[in-house]
Specification:
Length: 354
């Protein structure tokens, strides 16, 4: 048996499709071949977690693969190197594992910080509102983290526990080390970094006084607006990060498009763009693409609590997969990529092959 056959059997094994007769032959090869043994170990490492995490994500992976291949098509193909495909799979697998170490989707149930039973009622009494018309403190990066709220027309900041609800017109501020997420009635999610103060003015309007938010805005008929000193950022269903500092603000648009309106004119900032805003004017704009995710690394503490099926986590993982695809398969042509992954078991190789 040569290495190629051994790899095929390893894949069959991971797919639980190895025939009983083949097992001794594969074992014999593995005893004598360090390369295939290493590949087998890498498969085993990935298998359990990835199988779980990716069951529902095969289609998404295929879509990403199409995107990667489309990008590869446009590239200069004069430099092509043939790599042993086991090396390619293993190096890509290493990147893959990294992504999963970062997101730890398997920890979702263990780590998820849930509001304590009974708490919600206490907080509801604080701000007696219909659930449909209040904003909910939905996630805290760490157990026990709270934030402070100033009720409309109130004069004293009060502590808000996880699961607590606030009325529109309430100000929220976070301690330097605390990160939390609020959910508005339409399902939009507003993450607050440490040292942030924001006013939830109404269903679709925020005022960011200082600090940083990451907003994932649900689509709705009414535009979603965030005001900062001297400017308003308007968004329809989109995801963007906004850092509000005294001298300048930084807007990073991860999905969709936004409009920045100052006193005199407005400019659009598109998906993948990072813009500096000074006195209500976009003074600098650059296209960062997926690198923009780094601007929102602070929110990963919150995102990882959402589990592998969350749309945003999926998008981020897909972006990581696409990056891995670009770096690890950049020197392969499309036919090779498709062929190499044939009948592979691991999600990674399915992704490469799709
Ligand atoms: Zn071998």
């Amino acid at each position: 048996m040569d290495c190629e056959q051994a790899q095929a059997l390893l894949q069959a094994h991971m797919d639980r499709e190895l025939l009983p007769d083949d097992r001794p032959r594969l074992d014999a090869h593995l005893r004598g071949c360090a390369t295939c043994r290493a590949a087998a170990a890498a498969y085993r490492l990935q298998d359990a977690d990835l199988r779980l995490a990716f069951q529902s994500r095969r289609q998404a992976s295929a879509a990403v693969a199409d995107r990667v291949i489309a990008q590869l098509r446009g590239r200069d193909r004069t430099i092509r190197r043939r790599l042993p495909w086991t090396l390619m799979v293993m190096s890509a697998a290493a990147g893959f594992l990294l992504a999963f170490v970062v997101f730890r989707p398997w920890q979702k149930s263990a780590d998820l910080v849930r509001p304590e039973p009974g708490r919600q009622d206490d907080q509801a009494a604080l701000t007696p509102l219909e659930k449909a018309e209040s904003v909910v403190f939905a996630l805290a990066a760490e157990s026990g983290q709270t934030c402070e709220v100033l009720a409309p027309n109130g004069s004293v900041w009060q502590t808000l526990q996880l699961g607590g609800k606030i009325a529109f017109g309430t100000r929220v501020r976070t301690a330097p080390s605390s990160r939390c997420e609020f959910q508005t009635p339409d399902g939009s999610e507003i993450r607050l970094n440490g040292g942030t103060e924001v006013l939830f003015a109404d269903r679709r309007r925020l005022e960011l006084a200082r600090g940083q938010i990451l907003a994932r805005v649900e689509e709705a008929a009414a535009p979603f607006r965030v005001s900062i000193p001297n400017a308003t950022i308007t968004a329809l269903g989109t995801e963007f990060d906004l850092l509000c500092q005294s001298a300048e603000s930084v807007l990073s648009v991860l999905e969709g498009a936004t409009r920045v309106e100052g006193k005199e004119r407005w400019q659009t900032v598109q998906s993948g763009e990072k813009a500096k805003i000074v006195n209500g004017v976009v003074t600098h704009k650059e296209q960062l693409g997926r690198k923009l995710d780094q601007a929102t690394d602070w929110a990963l503490d919150l995102l990882k609590l959402k589990g592998p099926n969350n749309k945003e986590v999926t998008r981020r993982v897909n972006d990581i997969l696409a990056s891995i695809g670009e770096t690890k398969t950049g020197s392969f042509n499309e036919a090779e990529i498709r062929k190499l992954g044939y009948s592979c078991t691991t999600p990674l190789t399915r992704y490469v092959q799709s």
